[in-house]
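Human: Note C-alpha cell order:
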Amino acid sequence: MTNAGEEIERTVMEWPGVEARPHRFGGVEFRANGHEIGHLHGGHLADLPFPVKTRKELVETGKARLHHVLPKTGWVSYPIRDEEDVEGALDLFRLNYERLTAKKKEEGIKETSKGR
C-alpha cells in the first residue's frame, strides 16, 4: 500500500466502531455496524457504496467517479494518485461512515421508543 493508502487506512481505523478486513477482490475493506463503508485497492483506488441518489450527487459535483465496474449502482470510485487525493478520499469515507452510524443510532432510538 502506498503512503496515501496507509494514511487513509490509519485515519479510518481511528473512527469508533470501524473494523478492517481483507477485501474479496484485494486490498482492505472498512466496515461499521456490519456494513461496508468502502475499500481500498492498494493505495491507488477507493470504492465506496452509497445510495444511488447520493452517488449521482457525488459524480455530478466531481467529488467521485462512477464505479469502474458497476457504474449503474450506488458505488463510486475515487482514484488516489498522490498525497493530494487523500483528503478527498477521506471525505468520502467520512460521509459514508456518518451515514451508516447515523442509521444505527436511528434504529436504536426506534427500539428504545418501542420499549416505552
About this structure: The helical segments are 3-13, 52-60, 86-114. The chain has one domain: 3-114. The domain at 3-114 is CATH 3.90.1150 (Aspartate Aminotransferase, domain 1).
